[in-house]
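QUALITY CONTROL LOG
STEP: pairwise intake check
CHECKER ROLE: data steward
CRITERIA: each record must contain a sequence immediately followed by its structure tokens, with no blank fields

ENTRY 1 OF 2
RESULT FIELD BELOW
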Amino acid sequence: MKLWDISPPVDAHAPAFPGDTAYRQQWTAKLGPGSPVNVSAITCSPHLGAHADAPLHYDPAGAGVGALELFPYLGPCRVIHAWGMRSIGHGERLVRWSHIAHRIDAHLPPRVLVRTYERAPLHRFDPELAAFAPETLEQLADLGVQLVGIDTASIDPAASKTLDSHQVVRRRGLRVLENLVLDQVAEGDYELIALPLKWTSAEASPVRAVLRELQGVPRPRAALLAPEDPAFLDTPFDFGRALDL
């Protein structure tokens, strides 16, 4: 059985969305005389690293992440590579239906993860990140998709003030994963495991997102490279790697 770790590292170098609280860790107790353990206090935005957005993030009356059903975050999913996006107004790069249609069929699982990077930026924020076109999310919801994920910091363009795609997921009841690392994951079907913490009043939660090969399903081929993907082979082994268990 194989396991793919699709979570980025979270430490003082992890990029935060502009205006969000960066990672900070302080030791409140250190091993030594008078203390048998190390204990720390951590401060950061719940949107740092791989995370699940709750409706409370974009709906004042929405549920907190701890109140959400866990089913959408656990089960069969499909990874789709979306290439060839061009910037439109204000530098926006949107995942349109044409970018993912090649992997849509009658057997589409209720969870869809989209790879947009050749190599995800693990230590810098990308102001030109790719996001979902609202109509793409509408079409996925029409097909019964319950969760969408992306390897960027937001399902909306970084500069958006209207958050049109967030409003689609609010209205259609979709769940969202952001900041995934899919560099080493081939297109295909997997089992997703990405459970949020039971933070009852929070608008988001970190997740340790992993993919596992589905039992009885042929293993996907090695990750397909984009036409201009020379840096792919240099992807750090520790992140998004496949582990033989």
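ENTRY 2 OF 2
RESULT FIELD BELOW
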Amino acid sequence: MSEHKHILVVDDESQITRVLRTSLSSHGYDIRVANDGETALEIMKDWSPDLVITDLAMPNMDGLDLCRRLRTKTQVPIIVLSVRGEERTKVKALDAGADDYVTKPFGMEELLARVRANLRRVRTEESDLAPIEEGDFKICERSLFHRTRWGYTTGRQYRAPRLHGCGVDAGSSQG
């Protein structure tokens, strides 16, 4: 994989986060870990994940609240990883904004396949976007073009104009 995709793992069980960090890192992903939803939101102020894997039962802010909060700000894919396997719980998580649901205990190969599938879906959606043009600026894919030069934009800079409809100014003002 040419560009390391960023994955935020949100779980208060250190054994699960250790296994996920090791396995996902060994497959070329850049991993950050948060022990609860509040910490996850703090991490995301300075780091833009391409995918979030979260548990449901955590202190301070649970996984359902995290899904709801994330959906007000971003369309990043969210995979819920939980011991709760009842249909009602799965439906609540999906309705709260999760894109996928995996029940613990889980097979690592299945989880990796779901990660790839969710990342593939986002990549397809991003490639279908038309370039954004405003004045002397143009954003196309993940490149920012000016009439006289071009440069690479980060995930946060790239997503801001697209999601909020604020034009190029929204992305260029974020650092």
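INTAKE CHECK: passed for both entries
DESCRIPTIVE NOTE, ENTRY 2: The first strand starts at residue 6 and ends at 10.
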